[in-house]
Design brief:
The protein contains 5 helices and 8 strands. The chain has 178 residues and is of the alpha+beta class. An 8-stranded mixed β-sheet has the order 1-2-3-4-5-6-8-7, covered by helices on one side. The longest helix has 15 residues, at 105-119. The chain is globular and about 50 Å long. The two termini are 31 Å apart.
Length: 178
């Protein structure tokens, strides 16, 4: 079971049906929020409900991100899928609340979850894919010490054009190759 976690300014709660809200759906339908996501808008409460049930049933490492002082839900972060045999996890983050962008919450959330996965989940490596045009995300991942492992050329269709997807990875600093 995914546990509740804390950082300096944030609280991370396991994603579940309690997150079935119009606000969450509004993020998924906001072109500024979804422009680099696979969802692409046209989300309904029923679709979100189905997704949250799937998340609960899979017992994913998936958290809602809340501001500690106000308990405001501002986004989500996950490591999924996780491959225990190879010690791998795939990182994803959604900062859904535009009024909270640019305040360092994505970096703080990422650092806390990465640390948790390396320390408590014994993962060896965390990977991610990011659309090359998403300069803010690329900057965030580089600041977290993710390194580019490869580029999928013209891999996805975003904002009316095909864009490259950069594959990045971060190794657990305590992991030693054998």
């Amino acid at each position: 079971m995914t546990e509740e976690l804390l950082s300096d300014r944030l609280v991370f709660r396991p994603l579940s049906l309690v997150y079935l809200t119009e606000r969450y759906v509004s993020w998924l339908n906001n072109p500024e929020v979804y422009k680099y996501l696979e969802t692409g808008g046209n989300y309904t409460l029923e679709m979100l409900k189905d997704y949250l049930i799937e998340v609960e049933n899979k017992k994913m490492l998936f958290w809602g991100i809340h501001i500690k002082n106000t308990d405001e839900h501002i986004g989500n972060i996950k490591i999924d899928p996780v491959n225990r045999r190879h010690g791998l996890g795939e990182y994803g983050i959604l900062m859904g609340e535009p009024s909270q962008w640019g305040k360092g919450y994505a970096k703080e959330a990422s650092q806390r979850i990465l640390d948790y996965c390396f320390t408590n989940q014994n993962l060896r490596k965390i990977t991610l894919g990011v659309v090359s045009n998403n300069a803010a995300a690329v900057h965030l991942y580089k600041s977290l010490n993710f390194e580019i492992e490869g580029v999928y050329k013209k891999h996805g269709y975003y904002q009316g054009e095909y864009a490259d997807v950069i594959r990045m990875a971060l190794f657990n600093p305590k992991w030693q190759p054998q």
